[in-house]
Design a protein that fits this description.
globular; mainly beta; 7 strands
């Protein structure tokens, strides 16, 4: 599992392997990686891409999250205040909802 470099005073609430759906041409394509929720932010790092997280949202920039379906999978979509969406699927989908709630993010 990938590691997240924590900021001073930052604590991990939860993390797990999931897929993030990113725009590719006219559609969206899933990228495997790890989601991290801390007391300061929500992040996603694509497994095969070293470096900075592909999603790195401070909690104050998150409008909320919604739950739906992508194909047969439960999808948790994180909504930023700037209008971007980050749909995530994978086995920890239910846990991700709990982690976001613990971080103070509301369900939309």
């Amino acid at each position: 599992m990938a590691k997240l470099n924590l900021n001073p005073g930052e604590t991990m609430i939860g993390s797990g392997q999931m897929s993030l759906y990113l725009k590719q041409g006219l559609g969206k394509k899933p990228f495997q990686g790890n989601v991290f929720v801390t007391n300061q932010r929500a992040c996603f790092k694509i497994s095969m891409m070293p470096g900075e997280p592909d999603m790195n949202l401070p909690l104050e920039e998150i409008k909320g999250f919604s739950v739906g379906k992508i194909a047969l999978f439960t999808a948790v979509t994180i909504h930023s205040k700037s209008g971007e969406t980050y749909p995530l699927t994978g086995f920890p989908a239910k846990k991700l909802q709990d982690w976001l709630r613990q971080a103070g993010v509301q369900e939309l």
